[in-house]
Specification:
The chain is mainly beta. It contains four helices and 20 strands.
């Protein structure tokens, strides 16, 4: 299966060469390094980029992952693991604005992304396929470009993760503060690998983002670019969906703690997001406020979940002479209420960490400490400490 997925984009890309072998030499071919190996064909009419990435993690913790009694997780102790291993293939065909991207998980064997885009007009672009929906900044930022070792405890609860569908998006630049980005998507709403709509209800997502400094803030953590000017974003987003699922992850559709396996169209979900972020002179800020309402149309119950997190990072070399310029400190506080109709059930995260960037996000070492409190679950999971060390490296 993995071989099949790898061959699809490669064969598609090489098809023109099999049809015109003599022209290949005449038109030119060369290889460079950029986003991995970059293969240029026919005077750059075709571009193929291939990259690999791995995460190697050592950890000591009271519990290793989100303590949901519906999931299996290892006992407390020390672990050494290949946390992620990915192959990424992208590029363009015919023209630079006909682009595609493919990503395969080599550990779990899952096809993560497979999408094609038409990006000729900056204010009106088209995407089809499967990808991480542009809903929350935290989830959209790649695991290889995060500031922290992992995403916050809110991510699993509020993300809509990867979906299959179609999206219109773009950036409208009216000059200075009149700069806006938007994403409007119609999706199957059944998660990664879900090509069939549950019942007759599509998932709809709309994200509106104001870029008040006239520049779009990139999808990455930490101010590695050392922005001299303040660059920020303020976003509002909403999602509506009706399916058998209450949560989504890399594994596809699933259920949050306390929700039974659903029937077709059992759960009507409406979500809202308010988000802010900025970078400037070594400082980076990221905040998200979430509301999620789940209507159980079979048991006639309604649950509202509320969450918020704040994350701040800084490179002290900007203020302290002779301080290592490759070192960054960061902190995060996250909290969510799994049911605003109940009391004493808050779940919280307190995290402190440091990054050492050997080559930006392409090669970095992260040391992180977290204290986690889960009042929602059974007593043995109420709180715990987590210390983790991770080396994240890409081949290029």
């Amino acid at each position: 299966m993995l071989r099949k997925f790898l061959l699809i984009p490669i064969c598609y890309f090489l098809l023109p060469f099999s049809l015109s072998g003599q022209e290949e030499q005449e038109k030119g071919f060369y290889v460079t390094k950029g986003k991995g190996f970059e293969f240029h064909f026919f005077d750059d009419a075709y571009l193929l980029q291939v990259d690999f990435r791995g995460q190697f993690r050592a950890s000591f913790t009271d519990f290793e992952k989100f303590p949901d009694p519906n999931e299996d997780f290892p006992e407390s102790g020390t672990t050494l693991a290949i946390n992620r291993a990915r192959i990424k293939i992208g590029g363009h065909v015919f023209k630079p604005y006909y682009t595609f991207y493919f990503e395969q998980d080599l550990v779990g064997g899952n096809l993560l992304d497979f999408r094609a885009q038409l990006e000729k007009l900056p204010y009106l672009k088209l995407r089809v396929g499967q990808w991480k929906v542009r809903y929350t900044r935290e989830r959209v930022i790649s695991s290889g470009k995060q500031q922290g070792l992992d995403r916050s405890i809110l991510n699993r609860v509020f993300t809509i993760d990867r979906q299959q569908g179609v999206s219109l998006f773009g950036n409208i630049d009216g000059g200075s503060a009149a700069n806006f980005s938007y994403w409007a998507s119609a999706l199957t709403g059944t998660g990664r690998g879900g090509s069939t709509v549950d019942g007759n209800n599509l998932m709809y997502m709309l994200r509106l983002q104001w870029n008040p400094n006239g520049e779009v803030l990139g999808w990455s953590g930490s101010d590695l670019e050392n922005h001299e000017r303040f660059v920020s974003s303020i976003a509002l987003a909403g999602v509506t969906n009706q399916s058998r699922y209450t949560s989504f992850s890399t594994s596809g559709g699933g259920q949050l703690f306390g929700f039974e396996d659903g029937e077709t169209d059992q759960y009507k979900i409406d979500q809202f997001l308010f988000e802010t972020a900025f970078k400037c002179r070594g400082w980076s800020w990221h905040q998200e406020f979430h509301i999620k309402r789940i209507d159980d149309t079979v048991n006639f119950e309604q649950t509202t979940l509320i969450g918020n997190f704040f994350q701040l990072g800084y490179f002290p070399a900007h203020a302290i002479t002779n301080f290592p310029d490759k070192m960054e400190f960061y902190g995060r506080y996250a909290v969510y209420d799994p049911d605003d109709g109940l009391e004493n059930d808050l779940n919280s995260e307190y995290t402190l960490g440091l990054n050492w960037f050997f080559k930006g996000h392409k090669n970095k070492l992260t040391l992180e400490y977290s204290f986690l409190e889960f009042d929602q679950f059974v007593p043995e999971f109420e709180s715990g400490h987590r210390v983790r060390l991770q080396w994240d490296v890409s081949i290029f």
